[in-house]
Design goal:
By secondary structure, the chain is α/β, with parallel strands linked by helices. The protein has helices at 54-62, 101-111, 117-129, 145-158, 175-192, 203-209, 243-257; strands spanning 10-23, 26-39, 43-47, 69-74, 77-78, 86-89, 163-167, 195-199, 212-216, 223-228. The chain has a domain at 1-81 and 195-227 and 253-258: P-loop containing nucleotide triphosphate hydrolases (Rossmann fold). It is built from 7 helices and 10 strands. It has a 6-stranded mixed sheet with strand order 6-7-8-3-9-10, sandwiched between helices. The N and C termini lie far apart (49 Å).
Amino acid sequence: MSEPRSDTTAELSVEHVGKNFDTRGTTIRVLDDVSFSVKRGEFFVIVGPSGCGKSTLLRIIQGLETLNDGVITLAGRPLLGPSADRGFVFQQDSLYPWRTVLQNVLFGLEIMGKANSETTGRAMSLIELVGLKGFEHHYPRELSGGMRQRVNLARALAIDPQMLLMDEPFAALDALTRETMQQELLRIAAAANKTVVFITHQIDEAVLLADRVLVLSARPGRVVETIPIDLPRPRSLATKRSQEFQGLVDRIWNLVSAKPQVETV
């Protein structure tokens, strides 16, 4: 079995996080007492039923949403808002249609006032890393959906974040492109040596990508279990045909689909 990508140092620590939304005069508890840690270099995947607060949790980690309870730290520092130490990849590619591939990748660096010849060279290297060499001067309308998400990933990597946060980045892609992008993401994450927190509804995708899978309950989202994925790396689509893989998928599926316990008096 291959060595794990991560070390034992906790890079991200989520402690007793709770989140409420107030809507139409009613308070809805979305997340309740959520605690976990992510190791440096780990590929950490979060799954759970629709509406359990997965994307909300990721937005809290990014600093796009506030929390009501608990604390989140990155490398021991409390997270107080968005920062370049976290790169975010959304479900949709969110590229600027009037900017070329290279200009889109450079956008975050421009905002930070760091765009120069050196960072342009780094952006070109990242475009090559994500498999788009030769498309630097193309516009988003000239790219397929998978290619646009590759640009989105390169843009997130360009600011050299400690951690990549990915919110169902392949949800809008067809099945074949999605499988291709899963393989590419495994390659890119290993090459870039980044910690990744990844949200998905697809359990087989979670098992293929993850070092560990965190299962959240139905709303309010609570931690049900964290499952180590002890499958050898590098992983390929052939990994999905193994008995060990199917066993992990079934185990996580049973946790996700379990009905909530109802207290009786």
